[in-house]
Amino acid sequence: MALTAAKQYTVAALMATLAVAVIVTVVFAVVCPARVTFSVARTSFHHEDSTTTTGSLRLNLTLAIDNPSRRAAVAYESMFVDLSNSTAAVQGDNWIRATVTTPMPLRQARASPATVDAAVDLVAGPWAVAFTGDMTSSFSVIVTAQARFKVGVAWTRLYDIKVSCRPVAFFPAAKAKLGAAAASLPVKCI
C-alpha cells in the first residue's frame, strides 16, 4: 500500500508541474508584445530666414506608428530619432540627433495609429551644405524607442525597438534624383 501512495504522489507532482508549465506558457503567449510598424509619413524643410537659402535650415519629419494589435496597448517611454546623410545599410559617422517634439511618454491604444514629430536644426555654413549634399541628398532615419505593452491589466517588461527608414527625401532635388516611386511617402521602416 505504501508503494501505491508513493506512485500517486509522484503522479500528482508530475501533473502539478505540467499544469504550471501550461499556465506559464499561456501567460507568456498572451502577454507578448504587439508588432508595431513605423514609417516616415511627412517630410519638409524651411530656412529660418525666408528671404535667403543660405540661412539656418530646419528639417521636419512625422513618424507614423501603427499598432494593429486588438489586445495590446503600447506606452513609448522614450524615443530617439537620428538622421544620417547616407542611405547605405551600414551607417557611418555622419548622423545627427533630431529633437523629438512629441511629449513622452506616449500612450497608444489598441488597434490605433499614433504620430511622432521630430525636427533637426542645421546652422548655416559649409557643414550644413555638406551634410545635406547641397540640398540634393536622401537620408536614412533611425528610430530607437523603449516601450512597454499592456495586455489587459498586465504590463510587459521594457522592450528596445530600433528601426531604419530609407531613402527619405526632404528636398525636391533629392526626390527628383530618387524617382517618383522611391521618393513617395510613406517610407516604411524595417
TrEMBL record:
Organism expressing this protein natively: Digitaria exilis
UniProt protein name: Late embryogenesis abundant protein LEA-2 subgroup domain-containing protein
